[in-house]
């Protein structure tokens, strides 16, 4: 509607073409809302489920979705956002692959009067006027939940606990925050020592390769904390290839709770999973419609999520949506 008013102000001819149903002057077809979405890539089971949720929800909401996969590169996301601006989409949404470097392109969107919604991952800019809302998890809390389980698991034991950590993509909000939340909890007990910490880039391959190097350098690893299930699953392959029992010789904590992670948890190869829901599609579409209509939306929309032990995974698996 906002765009139709602008088009109409440009003169009868243009307004006539708009009224003739040639679209609202935006990139949309007819009067449906056009949403430009830039996705991080396809690096993990979580990402696949997130993409599915967004694409299916757009269809159900009657929203014309222009979807771009950045293959993990910030420059591709910036290009996609500029393309959405040129196409005059109604709303832009994206999951920022890393936290910094977004001010310039988001100012261009703001100058073009196209509202932006952040999904999944946050940006570190203090300028909150660059986006209308951020819908996603509290990654610091997820890291804390992982740490709290470990503290409970080793309660009453004084021996040193050697921890290996597989970090997510360098500079990504979930990697920075899951590391910080976990470290903040375990620092209370000197027995917990992070003896190795390196990025596996949120992928299975990365998790397997880095875990292989960890195992060669540190025969005495007691615990693995992986920032997502996929790196944990890759690490399990390396642990088994080294003749050790994942979940027993090396306790494993991961984040996400995607199907394959939950199966490994139920099978006893992972000990605890902190859920991070990828099912952001329905709420994103609702927010996009509200933002397009000029309605007020909360600056922050927190996603609901829980945690799973091995017993809880057995119970939850049959009903899992991802
Ligand atoms: C978290 C999301 C992370 C997942 C990973 O919201 O950004 O990226 O934890 C994914 O599996 O790759």
TrEMBL record:
<feature type="compositionally biased region" description="Polar residues">
    <location>
        <begin position="304"/>
        <end position="313"/>
    </location>
</feature>
<dbReference type="GO" id="GO:0030246">
    <property type="term" value="F:carbohydrate binding"/>
</dbReference>
<dbReference type="Pfam" id="PF13407">
    <property type="entry name" value="Peripla_BP_4"/>
</dbReference>
<dbReference type="InterPro" id="IPR025997">
    <property type="entry name" value="SBP_2_dom"/>
</dbReference>
<dbReference type="InterPro" id="IPR028082">
    <property type="entry name" value="Peripla_BP_I"/>
</dbReference>
<keyword id="KW-0732">Signal</keyword>
<feature type="region of interest" description="Disordered">
    <location>
        <begin position="302"/>
        <end position="322"/>
    </location>
</feature>
<feature type="signal peptide">
    <location>
        <begin position="1"/>
        <end position="20"/>
    </location>
</feature>
<dbReference type="GO" id="GO:0030313">
    <property type="term" value="C:cell envelope"/>
</dbReference>
<comment type="similarity">
    <text>Belongs to the bacterial solute-binding protein 2 family.</text>
</comment>
<protein>
    <submittedName>
        <fullName>LacI family transcriptional regulator</fullName>
    </submittedName>
</protein>
<feature type="domain" description="Periplasmic binding protein">
    <location>
        <begin position="36"/>
        <end position="295"/>
    </location>
</feature>
């Amino acid at each position: 509607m906002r765009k139709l008013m602008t088009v109409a102000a440009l003169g009868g001819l243009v307004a006539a073409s708009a009224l003739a149903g040639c679209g609202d002057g935006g990139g949309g077809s007819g009067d449906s809302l056009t949403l430009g979405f830039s996705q991080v890539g396809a690096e993990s089971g979580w990402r696949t489920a997130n993409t599915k949720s967004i694409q299916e929800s757009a269809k159900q909401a009657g929203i014309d979705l222009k979807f771009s996969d950045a293959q993990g590169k910030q420059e591709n996301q910036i290009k996609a956002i500029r393309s959405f601006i040129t196409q005059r989409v109604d709303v832009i949404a994206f999951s920022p692959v890393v936290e910094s470097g977004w001010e310039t392109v988001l100012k261009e969107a703001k100058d073009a009067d196209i509202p932006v919604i952040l999904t999944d991952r946050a940006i570190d800019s203090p300028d909150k006027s660059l986006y209308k809302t951020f819908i996603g998890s509290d990654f610091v809390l997820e890291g804390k939940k992982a740490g709290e389980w470990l503290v409970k698991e080793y309660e009453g034991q004084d021996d040193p606990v050697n921890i290996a950590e597989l970090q997510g993509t360098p500079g990504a909000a979930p990697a920075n925050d899951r590391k910080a939340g976990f470290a903040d909890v375990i620092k209370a007990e000197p027995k917990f020592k992070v003896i190795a910490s390196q990025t596996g880039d949120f992928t299975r391959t990365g998790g397997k390769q880095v875990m292989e190097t960890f195992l060669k350098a540190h025969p005495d690893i007691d615990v693995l904390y992986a920032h997502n299930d996929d790196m944990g699953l890759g690490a399990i392959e390396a642990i088994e290839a080294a003749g050790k029992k994942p979940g027993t010789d090396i306790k494993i904590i991961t984040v996400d709770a995607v199907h394959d992670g939950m199966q490994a948890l139920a099978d006893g190869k992972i000990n605890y999973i902190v859920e991070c829901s990828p099912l952001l599609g329905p709420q994103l579409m609702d927010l996009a419609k509200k933002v397009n209509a000029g309605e007020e939306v909360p600056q922050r929309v927190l996603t609901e999520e829980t945690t799973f032990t091995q017993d809880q995974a057995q119970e939850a698996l049959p009903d899992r949506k991802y």
